[in-house]
Write a structure and sequence with these properties.
Shape: globular
Helix content: 40-55%
InterPro entries: Bact_transf, EPS_sugar_tfrase, Sugar_tfrase_EpsB_2
Number of strands: 11
Strand content: 5-15%
Protein name: Sugar transferase, PEP-CTERM system associated/exopolysaccharide biosynthesis polyprenyl glycosylphosphotransferase
Subcellular location: Membrane
Order of helices and strands: EEEHHHHEHEHEHEHHHEEHHEHEHHH
Distance between the termini: 38 Å
Strand order of the largest sheet: 5-4-6-7
Radius of gyration: 25 Å
Family: Belongs to the bacterial sugar transferase family.
Number of helices: 16
Pfam families: Bac_transf
Structural class: alpha/beta
Length: 475
């Protein structure tokens, strides 16, 4: 299901929602364009080869073209070519095209052996050549367009406090293909100023006239206290009626950063903001996905798990597996299974401690299996038992949960669904090692709990492959 995101006024949506998940319209257009290019390259080259080789063994050209396009899109996705990135410029993406096509070639080579109907014959090199050239041209056109000032969204912030500063910082990061520019902030009495004076817009003008003067198509409300009598309700209504989109800061962060920020969150936003699909159909689809994904990865990773078990045992002669109590769905405690990555006496004093960079408690083998996330693979058993999902918030230890529920607002919301082996926070943020890290990861977890779907699960699964390939975030 695809829809434009809700907005408080006019203006064309620069992001779309697919099954509740926000996707850059430009990135989605790029993916569809490249799908069409790859399908055309594969089907055209295959048909050209078949015309001259009618008597030879040939596969189905249409199935072969579809397999080629989907495998290449998967390969490019796993190497982050459709993902938000701080250095998401044309050069960064072009560098990843060759490794993506090399990975695609390897996957297709296996697929051709398994499915005889998929066959390219001598047209294989032509298929890859045309596909690579088409992707290069598509990226050139799309990235040139994305850098155009005509496509850059201009917005005005109502408020000049801490939340406004975070919006300015988010705009400065310039993530992905969707770009926006904060043209200025409108000060509201009673807020402590946290933005640079140069960003303040002159007082005395209405919000609608400021928006038209600066060609801003959206106004983001960042005011924390909206009951002090100075909140410009009438002016915001005038903007909405005048064709300028009015967006709450919580919705803005959800849309632009895939986060539900704790500091800008009102309880009413969670209550009336939609999402939180807990239907029987969603539960059934998620369980089927858990079993299929876990079963497939178990089979594919069996040699890796056997090697990891041998290495863990050989290093110090200690136990291969490690069980630890974690908090799961509705606060129920269960025992998670992992490959042991720390010394046997890692917590000899009985006091739980956060994992740290270059943790001295980790063994030499443990350092690498944690970095590559191999230590998490035995948790497939927890998935089969129904204690965990494949995708969801990472389960935390009871000692830390008690502390975080006391100190962090809305922390317990993440326990409304099953915990997961991987999750949005794991692919978007580093390994958690403090209360501050837990808060930042919670903001991704809240987004997932609110907007979870099979589509989002599949995206996280693809991103997890990238995390494992490049060893991101492990400690």
């Amino acid at each position: 299901m695809m829809e434009a995101p809700p907005a408080g006024g006019g203006g064309e949506a620069v992001v779309i929602r697919i099954f509740h998940h926000y996707v850059s319209r430009m990135a989605f257009t790029l993916l569809l364009l490249e799908l069409l290019i790859l399908l055309s390259a594969a089907s055209g080259a295959s048909l050209m080869w078949l015309d001259g080789h009618r008597g030879g063994a040939a596969g189905n050209p249409w199935l072969s073209a579809l397999a080629f396009a989907l495998v290449l899109l998967f390969s490019m996705s796993t190497l982050g070519m459709y993902q938000h990135h701080p250095r998401g410029d044309l050069r960064h993406n072009l560098v990843r095209i060759m490794p993506s096509f090399a990975l695609g070639f390897a996957l297709l080579s296996v697929l051709v052996q398994l499915v005889p109907a998929i066959h390219f014959g001598r047209a294989g090199s032509l298929v890859f050549g045309l596909g690579a050239l088409g992707v290069l041209l598509a990226r050139l056109v799309v990235y040139t367009s994305a850098r155009s000032g005509m496509l850059e969204e201009r917005l005005i912030l109502v408020g000049d406090g801490a939340i406004a500063r975070e919006c300015v910082e988010l705009a400065a990061e310039r993530l992905g293909l969707h770009r926006f520019n904060v043209v200025g902030c409108v000060a509201v009495a009673g807020e402590p100023r946290c933005v640079a004076p140069g960003l303040l817009l002159p007082a005395g003008q209405s919000l609608l006239s400021l928006a038209r003067q600066h060609e801003a198509r959206e106004i983001v409300v960042t005011v924390a206290d909206r009951r002090n009598g100075t909140f410009p309700v009438r002016q915001l209504l005038e903007c909405a009626l005048g064709g300028v989109a009015v967006t709450d800061a919580a919705a803005f962060f959800e849309r632009e950063a895939c986060q539900i920020r704790i500091d800008s969150l009102q309880p009413s936003y969670l209550i009336f903001g939609g999402g939180f699909d807990q239907s029987f159909l969603r539960a059934g689809v998620k369980r089927a996905f858990d079993l299929l994904a876990s079963g497939a990865i178990c089979l594919l990773s069996l040699p890796v798990m056997l090697l990891a078990a041998l290495c863990v045992r050989a290093e110090d002669g200690g136990p291969v597996f490690y069980q630890q109590e974690r908090v799961g769905l509705h606060g129920r405690v269960f025992r998670v299974l992992k490959f042991r990555s720390m010394r046997v006496d890692a917590e000899g004093d009985g006091k739980p401690a956060w994992a740290a960079a270059d943790d001295p408690r980790a063994t030499r083998v443990g350092h690498w299996i944690r970095k590559l996330r191999i230590d998490e693979l035995p948790q497939m058993l927890n998935v089969f038992k129904g204690e965990m999902s494949f995708v969801g918030p990472r389960p935390e230890r009871g000692f830390f949960v008690e502390q975080l529920c006391r100190d962090v607002a809305y922390y317990n919301v993440r326990h409304s669904i099953k915990p997961g082996i991987t999750g949005l926070a794991q692919v978007r943020y580093q390994y958690g090692a403090s209360v501050d890290d837990a808060v930042r990861k919670l903001q991704y977890d809240l987004y997932y709990v609110k907007n979870n779907s099979l589509f989002l699960d599949l995206l996280i699964l693809v991103d997890t492959v990238q995390v494992v390939l490049f060893g991101k975030g492990g400690r």
